């Protein structure tokens, strides 16, 4: 008997193969981010099997019963969870490991009633089960990153509004999550505004530089960012744990002709390296590097691999700052392979075909993913005039949370049925 609930693996339309398009990495290669669900040709499906089995049929044609404990720990009745917080009232590790389903029925289309061997009864939405099953093991259920390189033709730009509509804000977040950055134009240039912009997307991450930092050339600078020298692509603050996830830079004034901002999609470069030279990729994904920052009041050190993978082997973060990295004293053979791999990665990161450049004009603000993108700038002549940016960090999960909440709210407003 076929169950009524059917669900495509891309319920939100945001999962799928990375599309290179005119902006993507040049793809004779497989330009796929490993953490993205690959859309299948067939929808997933639930059906009643015997005896008392709820069977998941996957898009690739495989099928398996849904584990009784997997269902049992998702019971949403008042005895199992606090209905207001949706948090469990019972430690699921205390459930019977040999729990069985002793009765299973489908009282309505897409609704399953389950009686467990511990006597508990639960009612489940087929849509919710399939939506969860459709997520990749490491999915954040957000727009999939779209890899890009120096051929990126249209930058994600938006006219800033302090009171955007929910739809407008959702669009900004989609751009950010897809491209890893967004440039806002017309942001008021009152000092401190960058914090207000940041608070729209998440919580400010204060550091020893303060909640807000000023980027301008100063004598006796404590960081090369505060000089006028060019800065090669790097990620910020790899010496912290955790690393600040997102950076915002707001241009209060720029009277110089240089000082162009640069961005590189580190995931695109890493993915291409993985295809071209898997040995170098593996070395960078497995060599712990010490990053260090020291000034009169601060000494920060953290170890991180330049290319960080998640538990599924997908790209998770890039940590790369050639001004601050100190590889441990490994054997000459191991260091030989590391130095070759770092050189290859670094040269690709600095290659013009991966980099985009743009001038931050007065009132422009760029927000970028510091775990995916590398940033830098060209040098400038401070004698030409002032160049003053203000920056701040926010945590990586802020925009993702805002995106999900807005999607939920807009879905409700549009009358979208999210559960049975
Ligand atoms: Fe930086």
Detailed description of the structure:
- It is a single chain.
- The protein has 8 helices and 24 strands.
- The chain is α+β, with helices and mostly antiparallel strands and 420 residues long.
- It has 2 domains: 2-142, NE0471 N-terminal domain-like (2-Layer Sandwich), CATH 3.30.2020.30; 160-403, 4-Layer Sandwich (Double-stranded beta-helix).
- Helix 3 (166-179) crosses helix 8 and helix 6 (278-286) crosses helix 7.
- The chain starts with a strand and ends in a 7-residue tail after the last helix.
- It binds fe (ii) ion (FE2).
- Fe (ii) ion is lined by residues 225, 234, 236, 375.
Protein traits:
420 residues; alpha+beta; disordered N terminus; 22% helix; 6-stranded mixed β-sheet; 8 helices; 27% strand; 24 strands; Double-stranded beta-helix; single chain; binds fe (ii) ion; disordered C terminus; 4-stranded antiparallel β-sheet; NE0471 N-terminal domain-like; globular
- How do the strands of the widest beta sheet line up side by side? 10-11-22-14-24-12
Rg from Cα: 25 Å
CATH top level class name of the largest domain = Alpha Beta
CATH superfamily placement of the largest domain: Clavaminate synthase-like
* Number of helical segments with 4 or more residues: 8
> What's the overall average pLDDT, rounded?
87
Ligands bound, unique:
fe (ii) ion
Total of domains: 2
Report how far the terminal alpha carbons are from each other.
20 Å
**What proportion strand?**
25-35%
Q: What structural category arises from helix and sheet content?
A: alpha+beta
Based on Cα principal axes, name the global outline. globular
Helix content bin: 10-25%
Uncertain regions spanning at least 5 consecutive residues = 1-40, 415-420
CATH topology of the largest domain: Double-stranded beta-helix
CATH architecture of the largest domain: 4-Layer Sandwich
Sheet with the most strands, sense and barrel status: 6 strands, mixed
Beta strands, count: 24
